[in-house]
Automatic annotation (TrEMBL):
It comes from the Bacteria. This is Agmatinase. InterPro entries: Agmatinase-rel, Ureohydrolase, Ureohydrolase_dom_sf, Ureohydrolase_Mn_BS. Binds 2 manganese ions per subunit. Gene3D superfamilies: Ureohydrolase domain (3.40.800.10). Its cofactor is Mn(2+). One of its GO terms (biological process) is putrescine biosynthetic process from arginine, via agmatine. Coiled coil: none annotated. Mn(2+) 1 binds at D146, H148, D150, D237, D239. It comes from Comamonas serinivorans. Keywords: Hydrolase, Manganese, Metal-binding. Mn(2+) 2 binds at H124. One of its GO terms (molecular function) is agmatinase activity.
């Protein structure tokens, strides 16, 4: 009998309650190994809003998810109790710091109970309160796929935008910069502040030009070297991909990863001690086709497999 109740996955894909990957809904941490959560919040964006609609559309597109991974031959629902815990019930969306506190407080009981969290955003500012909810005695390592380093300090008077979550996490002792790799960085900037912060604090920054030189296999090897056996968080901003694949995002940058490269990269992380993950910056209003949300949902399934593989001793 599978660890997750998969009866809803046997229904037609257009039927049933549209939870992430058609798993059961849970309202408490009891009996949950991996909690799938939506964070419909984009109050931290610096350009185009719309990521607040990401979780709902990724839920819709995740009805296409199936159980057994095509290359790993592994079914995460067989070995882990996976549940959709719903969306953060925001009450103060017009106050960035208050909204972040609501994210932290919603996820913290699940983290405290030992569940791993897989979050659908939402803009990238939400990753900082996720780190706060997961707070551990030692800072986390991270694999970060993105067009931007998100280590700027302040924008328009706020230190909690989608351009600053990892700077805040380092300052708070939640993220180990020396065990962090940022992959796919590209695009011109008005200031090199973010790049400099990442490099000066020991982050391994793989700009897109170097990605092309190293190739996927070389970047995988570098990621595994950087994070080692430390507990690692996976953060995937869909603008890390080329906008031909993910046009529905707030700050698109051409010249990014292909979806095939993204899948190969994530699959190459198998065996790492992945303890949490997010897929962020899916902004459906900019992509009427629904493809960006489909990509986001598929990346969530790949992240779920990494979380489940590291949850079960092998």
């Amino acid at each position: 009998m599978p660890a997750t109740d998969t009866r809803q996955q046997q229904l037609p894909r257009y039927a049933g309650i549209p939870t992430f990957m058609r798993v059961p809904f849970a309202s408490s941490p009891q009996g949950v190994d991996i909690a799938l959560a939506g964070v419909p919040y984009d109050g931290g964006v610096s350009a185009r809003p719309g990521a607040r609609h990401g979780p709902r559309e990724m839920r819709n597109q995740s009805s296409m998810a199936r159980g057994i991974h095509p290359t790993l031959g592994f079914n995460p629902f067989e070995v882990c109790r996976v549940a959709d815990i719903g969306d953060v019930p925001f009450t103060r969306v017009y106050d960035v710091e208050a909204a972040h506190a609501e994210i932290r407080d919603f996820l913290a009981p699940y983290c405290a109970a030992g569940a791993k969290v897989l979050v659908a955003g939402g803009d990238h500012s939400i990753t900082y309160p996720i780190f706060q909810a997961m707070a551990r005695p030692q800072p986390l390592a991270m694999v970060h796929i993105d067009a931007h380093t998100d280590t700027w300090d302040e924008f328009a008077g706020s230190k909690f935008t989608h351009g600053s979550p990892f700077r805040r996490a380092v300052e708070a002792g939640l993220l180990d910069p020396t065990r962090t790799i940022q992959i796919g960085i590209r695009g011109a900037q008005n200031s090199d502040e973010g790049w400099r912060y990442s490099l000066d604090h020991g982050m391994r920054v793989v700009f897109m030009d170097e990605f092309e030189t190293l190739g996927v296999a070389g970047v995988i090897a570098e990621a595994r070297r950087v994070v080692g056996d430390a507990p690692v968080y996976l953060s995937f901003d869909v603008d890390g991909l080329d906008p031909v694949f993910t046009p529905g995002t707030g700050t698109p940058e051409i010249g990014g990863l292909t979806t095939r490269e993204a899948l190969a990269l994530l699959r190459g992380l198998d065996g790492l001690n992945v303890v949490g993950a997010d897929v962020v910056e899916v902004a459906p209003p900019f992509d009427p086709s629904g493809n960006t949300a489909l990509v986001g949902a598929t990346l969530m399934y790949e992240a779920l497999c990494l979380l489940a593989r590291s949850h079960v001793p092998r």
